[in-house]
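Students often ask what a 'structure token' actually looks like in practice. Rather than answer in the abstract, let us consider UDP-glucose 4-epimerase, a protein of 320 residues. Its sequence is given first.
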Amino acid sequence: MTWLVTGGAGYIGAHVARALREAGLDPVVLDDLSSGHRAFVAPGTPFVEGSILDGELLLDTLSEHEVEGVIHVAGFKYAGVSVERPLHTYRQNVEGTRVLLAAMADRGVGRIVFSSSAAVYGNADVDLVVEDTPKNPTSPYGESKLIGEWLLRDQAVATGLAHTSLRYFNVVGSGFPDVYDTSPHNLFPLVFDALVAGRTPRINGTDYPTPDGTNVRDYIHVADLARAHVAAAAALAEGRALEPAYNLGSGDGVSVRQIMDAVARVTGIAFEPELGPRRAGDPARIVASGDRAARDLGWAMRHSLDDMVASAWAARVAAG
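Now compare that with the structural description of the same chain:
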């Protein structure tokens, strides 16, 4: 069975595409390379360069490769930047998803796994986020992901589309030495770039009501995330009914201070992070339960914090 992975040349999408191959499901990658890298696509995997906004290209790709399901990872993923570029965010994430669903309906492709985001919850004022926690996104990015879930829901009513959405927070680590996080906004790349350049990483806010005063978040290994996407695709291919959405969460979270300590420990680069004031809008703690995904998708945190740091650092060093 062939699965189209949109955004499959990006950090997350490339891991998903490679995990599909390892599971015996044939991937085809579509990516416009706006943030992805052609080199991240494994040799032998069909690659189509183009945008999900190009309906004709999608129709041709679905037909040419006899696609039977889609894992939709493509999108504009920078929550902070989305506040400054809302129209661009909605075009890429909402209109892009609409165009994709229209092409799927035209070609009779009836299965989709949507790579959503825990940003749909916003600054949830609960100890543990569950799938039914109220949705209150605080950025155009989070709003666009929630709208994407609505589009899947409504298309399922109209056409019987089989679907599920996977919501997650911070993705780190590397499952392959030649695939790594190149985002200019994520914590791990920022910390690593600072160390490589001889600068001191920075912690924003040390007076939060958490055990060590720094933010607590869910950090999950990208290989575990990719495995969950493949499990969802396999379930849909088997005709199993899935929940509309699943959280891929750790259940307890990790603080920014713990991240910094692990980076120093694993890399062998001793440093004491600079301490700065809080950033506006940063909540103290956001952690999700992954119980529902564990029940239906075999979700598990298979990597320790040190595993996450070590694999990410090794890939960063290999990249030069």
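One point worth highlighting: The longest strand covers residues 26-31. Ask yourself how you might have guessed this from the sequence alone, and why that guess would often be unreliable.
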